[in-house]
């Protein structure tokens, strides 16, 4: 109680958080809870991609940046990453597509158009429609890194932006293959959208397999801080790093790290 | 004495009002200049580094590639042009037919409702059109052409056509409405039937207004973003058929701007500058036409 009272005094003011649209919903929910228990604190959460989270945290425009991947070497010089949660990237297909699993080599072949028909991977006789993510998205980086492919190697039929756009593309054309955050895919599948998560390299994409590290395509969801962090922002960061937000993280189908 | 003081007071009020109005006019005009300046400033690093040439000489657009980064925008210029022209080609016959029906055939009640529906159509947010395109138009295309991605030049053209249809229909309606009834009466006096009057008298007389509508439609379709990004497939390529995906310039900016860094971002600003230039040319052409056409209408 004493601590909480102490924190309140030094942590009033406005805290700016910008960055990844994957991380933003978690932080927005956490911010609501935090504001309720800390009157006088206003937290503004704006999504605009991991790159924005990085540049805003460096320039000081934002107190905290949201980044949905591990920091690159040159970024760690200016920024410190604080892991908020873990997420996986999984392949999604239409519920009516009979294909249930794909291994890494098959994915490489599909995304480079060496395999162009579903019947070559145990499906129906139909052309595969390859959906890829637009340049700069963390899911693209994470997925291509896993497959060991360069951007120039991928031969896509459709390029999309948001996770939901991938889902809608798969729903709109049942021969489409796409990849999204496991959180998004699980939430959509649970909501009755006709999509399914595909077993990759023998591993089922679930929150459990991300948690125990057995699922091959994972990424950390990070909060990053620049050279200086205001006491108010530090207090909110401590809250985000505490076990108190596990419920919020799990509600969004991500995996808490602590 | 009193009256002269009143005059000087009113002159003073007049001057202040004029000044305030001029300020607001300056602000609205200045915003465009500021916008252009910001676009130019954002694009400058790429222009300075001489990257603008890559815009037209690189074959592909793969800014994120480590092995072979390429920044060619020709495919996107082609994508924008093709989808815009297709949209107008689809929307013009329908819009014109709707305007002719409204002016010459529809009973008053139906004409009023036709107009109201067109006005409502203008107000539909573009993201709704895009979502409808993805959920309805794309599956319909898949039934016609199974084995294609569905998200395609055709899907973009159809969705954009629906968005600019009311623009073309309403400006055509207004143009047909403005045809002097003396002209139509003279045609009737010559014994021309209704169909003949429309084709030979009304449409030629309304040509200027209809063309303005077409150019407004072109400008709107060229700048449209939210709907096309959802239905065009966004593959930067020269399409081989209507069923191939394309990538308009606006899609590229919308998809990549929030995620781009450094030189990639500057090139996106360049793309924005090019787009702004195209739109400016279209708008310039519209006002040039209007100025040229006005004396003609007065003369008729």
Average pLDDT taken over every residue of chain B = 87
Number of helices of chain B: 12
The number of E-state strands of chain A comes to: 12
Q: How do the helices and strands follow one another from N- to C-terminus of chain A?
A: HEHEHEHEEHEHEHEHEEHEHHE
Largest sheet of chain A: 10 strands, mixed
Q: DSSP helix count of chain A?
A: 11
Query: What is the N-to-C succession of helices and strands of chain B?
Result: HHEEHHHHHHHHHH
Cα-based radius of gyration of chain A, to the nearest Å: 20 Å
Biggest beta sheet summary of chain B: 2 strands, antiparallel
Alpha carbon gyration radius of chain B:
24 Å
Distance between the termini of chain A: 23 Å
Explain briefly what this protein structure is:
The complex is a heterodimer of chains A (258) and B (300). Chain A has 258 residues and is an alpha/beta fold.
Describe this structure in words.
The complex is a heterodimer of chains A (258) and B (300). Chain A is α/β, with parallel strands linked by helices. In chain A, 37% of the residues lie in helices and 25% in strands. In chain A, the strands form 2 sheets. In chain A, strands 1, 2, 3, 4, 6, 7, 8, 9, 11 and 12 form a 10-stranded mixed sheet that branches. In chain A, helix 6 links the parallel strand 6 (129-133) and strand 7. The two termini of chain A are 23 Å apart. Mean pLDDT of chain A is 89; it is low at 1-11. With 300 residues, chain B is an all-alpha fold. Chain B has a domain at 73-256: Orthogonal Bundle (MetI-like fold). Helices cover 78% and strands 1% of the residues of chain B. Chain B has a two-stranded antiparallel sheet. In chain B, strand 1 and strand 2 (70-71) form a beta hairpin. In chain B, helix 7 (181-189) packs antiparallel against helix 8 (194-205) and helix 11 packs antiparallel against helix 12. Chain B starts with a helix and ends with a helix. In chain B, 38% of the residues are buried. The model of chain B is unreliable at 295-300 (pLDDT under 50). The A-B interface holds A 48-52, 55, 126-127, 129, 134-137, 140, 150-152, 156-161, 165, 168-169, 171-173, 175-176 and B 60, 62-68, 70, 131, 134-135, 138-139, 142, 146-151, 229-230, 233-235, 245, 247, 254-256, 258-261, 264.
